[in-house]
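Example 428.
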Amino acid sequence: MRILVTAGPTREFMDPVRFISNRSSGKMGYAVAIAARNRGHEVVLVSGPVALAAPVGVTVIPVVSAAEMLAAVSGNLDSCDVLVMAAAVADWRPAAVSGQKLKKLKREPDMRLEPTADILQTLKPRKGDRVFIGFAAETEQVEAEARRKLVSKGLDMIIANDVSQADAGFDVDTNRVVLITSEALPLSLPLMSKQEVGTRVIQWVEERVKASPRKGGIAGLRDMAPAGSVPRAPGRLAQQLGFIREIDRLKLVLRRTLLMDGTRYENDAEHSWHLAVMAILLREHANTPDVDVGRVVKMVLVHDIVEIDAGDTYCYDDAGNRGKVAREQVAAARLFGLLPEDQRQEFQALWEEFESRVTPEAKFAAALDRVQPLMHNYYTGGVVWKQHGVNSAKVQDRNRHVGEGSLALWEFAEELIRDAVARGYLEA
Ligand code: CTP
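Predicted structure in complex with cytidine-5'-triphosphate:
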């Protein structure tokens, strides 16, 4: 597909040095463009003034004002199958633009504003079979406002986000969005990197137009290979290498837990690695003395791979947890299905064993999976617990099964919870 993406703010000048603009950093639009490129599509990116590097392999058309953005989008629309309007287009511009810098010694400038053209509205009559996608950054009545725009602008999808939250919206690398279409129920995605949101949007478009990524043999496989012929592996090895490339995306899935130094959110791959090290170090504390630590390591390394497709569901998010099982089963089938059959079976079995929490290995792995985020929450002063209004009873409840895998770790966890309450990190 050929995908036209807009990003960043526009600037509406009143004189040669002053302009009206907004807080958009362009990160979300650039993430969509990069995701589309990574999935093998041709990308034209119409970008307002931003401090981001032009993505390699993407045709970037720099613009400044809403009028220039409209002209660039309009000029490229015919050759594109999809338009993603992620730009924060200024809604007003000064009615008169002074050719000279306005002087403060003179009288106050006449700051009359006039509306800019709405790009989506203007191009609506030319939509045809194209997929049109908009973004709605709102501070109140997020879904209702976004739905109104979906209808009035004739869009196939609108991506709504609440920009009043600190970890979503302007200038951050993460976003928490709701995907709204006219035909399906809104899909609330958990907090994830903007890159991952971009990938979800492009995957949705691919589904919609039933087009698979152009390059690469395996659906969903990123193909950033350099131009020209690249080394190809034969059959079985090719499948294994394809899977290895696919699971690189686990590094893009952000969890709700902050790194213990509080600098950023942890990603899923980092979480799995942490558990693997814990399994090796802490095996003597498993309830079953002869626990097979090799299998525990395998299980913790495999357990979150499904989140590449299913996303991370926060353990205290009751709504998100309702559809989780079905979402993850579909994801497991697709992802493990990329492997040779014997390894598909092995990974699927390890994942199911972990989820069922019946064998001593699975119980120990699950204990580690719970203690690790507890430590992160504790050492970051419980900020994430507080954000989500979680109290000690809930934490006790969700984590009680740690004792099934390791009584020693459960004793430690209980102590941590007690102390977190005493320190004011966690509500009693
Ligand atoms: N948009 C556009 N042209 C404009 C303004 C916005 O094409 N002049 C697009 C944006 O890129 C976005 C969608 O319309 O995809 C919604 O933008 P938003 O600013 O949220 O909505 P507005 O229509 O400007 O409405 P309001 O200011 O009332 O929120």
